[in-house]
Amino acid sequence: MMRIGHGFDVHRLVAERKLILGGIEIPYSLGLLGHSDADVLLHAICDAILGALGAGDIGKHFPDSDPAYRGISSLKLLAQVMGLARERGYTIGNLDATVIAQRPKLAPYIRQMVEIIAATCGVNPERVNVKATTTEQLGFEGRGEGISAHAVVLLQVDDGLEEIF
């Protein structure tokens, strides 16, 4: 059996915050505002997996009203979401995600993001694809006010046969 999920997230860019995307710190003068580390890419991926499972969204599982999640690494949230998927007998068949940001340029960091996401999800990096694009200076992303991300995931029954690395 296969299940498909889609996730979307957006956070405002602000001063005096680190920019964390795909589980890594990106050198930049602004960072994303949020209760956790505000990693829009990982939040969109979590929502896609939760959506495929029919298990609500990231806010349901990790509410911003809970101080336990204040400043937490979104890699920890992704690991918990993948734990839920594994408990239900699923693994990632493939994952495709897009980060939308005018600045900074993300191409130099994509490979590292893919490797960290794949390792956290326990799958071969060939099953994970991350892209970055701009909005040609249109909208809030184009004006540099925030960053958004979309993710689509195909979950499949975990037969345990794949070698991860």
Automatic annotation (TrEMBL):
<protein>
    <recommendedName>
        <fullName>2-C-methyl-D-erythritol 2,4-cyclodiphosphate synthase</fullName>
        <ecNumber>4.6.1.12</ecNumber>
    </recommendedName>
</protein>
<dbReference type="GO" id="GO:0046872">
    <property type="term" value="F:metal ion binding"/>
</dbReference>
<dbReference type="GO" id="GO:0016114">
    <property type="term" value="P:terpenoid biosynthetic process"/>
</dbReference>
<feature type="site" description="Transition state stabilizer">
    <location>
        <position position="35"/>
    </location>
</feature>
<keyword id="KW-0414">Isoprene biosynthesis</keyword>
<comment type="similarity">
    <text>Belongs to the IspF family.</text>
</comment>
<comment type="subunit">
    <text>Homotrimer.</text>
</comment>
<comment type="pathway">
    <text>Isoprenoid biosynthesis; isopentenyl diphosphate biosynthesis via DXP pathway; isopentenyl diphosphate from 1-deoxy-D-xylulose 5-phosphate: step 4/6.</text>
</comment>
<feature type="site" description="Transition state stabilizer">
    <location>
        <position position="134"/>
    </location>
</feature>
<dbReference type="InterPro" id="IPR020555">
    <property type="entry name" value="MECDP_synthase_CS"/>
</dbReference>
<feature type="binding site">
    <location>
        <position position="140"/>
    </location>
    <ligand>
        <name>4-CDP-2-C-methyl-D-erythritol 2-phosphate</name>
    </ligand>
</feature>
<dbReference type="GO" id="GO:0019288">
    <property type="term" value="P:isopentenyl diphosphate biosynthetic process, methylerythritol 4-phosphate pathway"/>
</dbReference>
<dbReference type="Pfam" id="PF02542">
    <property type="entry name" value="YgbB"/>
</dbReference>
<keyword id="KW-0456">Lyase</keyword>
<feature type="binding site">
    <location>
        <begin position="9"/>
        <end position="11"/>
    </location>
    <ligand>
        <name>4-CDP-2-C-methyl-D-erythritol 2-phosphate</name>
    </ligand>
</feature>
<feature type="binding site">
    <location>
        <position position="11"/>
    </location>
    <ligand>
        <name>a divalent metal cation</name>
    </ligand>
</feature>
<feature type="domain" description="2-C-methyl-D-erythritol 2,4-cyclodiphosphate synthase">
    <location>
        <begin position="2"/>
        <end position="155"/>
    </location>
</feature>
<feature type="binding site">
    <location>
        <begin position="133"/>
        <end position="136"/>
    </location>
    <ligand>
        <name>4-CDP-2-C-methyl-D-erythritol 2-phosphate</name>
    </ligand>
</feature>
<feature type="binding site">
    <location>
        <begin position="35"/>
        <end position="36"/>
    </location>
    <ligand>
        <name>4-CDP-2-C-methyl-D-erythritol 2-phosphate</name>
    </ligand>
</feature>
<feature type="binding site">
    <location>
        <position position="9"/>
    </location>
    <ligand>
        <name>a divalent metal cation</name>
    </ligand>
</feature>
<feature type="binding site">
    <location>
        <begin position="62"/>
        <end position="66"/>
    </location>
    <ligand>
        <name>4-CDP-2-C-methyl-D-erythritol 2-phosphate</name>
    </ligand>
</feature>
<feature type="binding site">
    <location>
        <begin position="57"/>
        <end position="59"/>
    </location>
    <ligand>
        <name>4-CDP-2-C-methyl-D-erythritol 2-phosphate</name>
    </ligand>
</feature>
<feature type="binding site">
    <location>
        <position position="43"/>
    </location>
    <ligand>
        <name>a divalent metal cation</name>
    </ligand>
</feature>
<comment type="function">
    <text>Involved in the biosynthesis of isopentenyl diphosphate (IPP) and dimethylallyl diphosphate (DMAPP), two major building blocks of isoprenoid compounds. Catalyzes the conversion of 4-diphosphocytidyl-2-C-methyl-D-erythritol 2-phosphate (CDP-ME2P) to 2-C-methyl-D-erythritol 2,4-cyclodiphosphate (ME-CPP) with a corresponding release of cytidine 5-monophosphate (CMP).</text>
</comment>
<feature type="binding site">
    <location>
        <position position="143"/>
    </location>
    <ligand>
        <name>4-CDP-2-C-methyl-D-erythritol 2-phosphate</name>
    </ligand>
</feature>
<keyword id="KW-0479">Metal-binding</keyword>
<dbReference type="GO" id="GO:0008685">
    <property type="term" value="F:2-C-methyl-D-erythritol 2,4-cyclodiphosphate synthase activity"/>
</dbReference>
<dbReference type="InterPro" id="IPR003526">
    <property type="entry name" value="MECDP_synthase"/>
</dbReference>
<dbReference type="InterPro" id="IPR036571">
    <property type="entry name" value="MECDP_synthase_sf"/>
</dbReference>
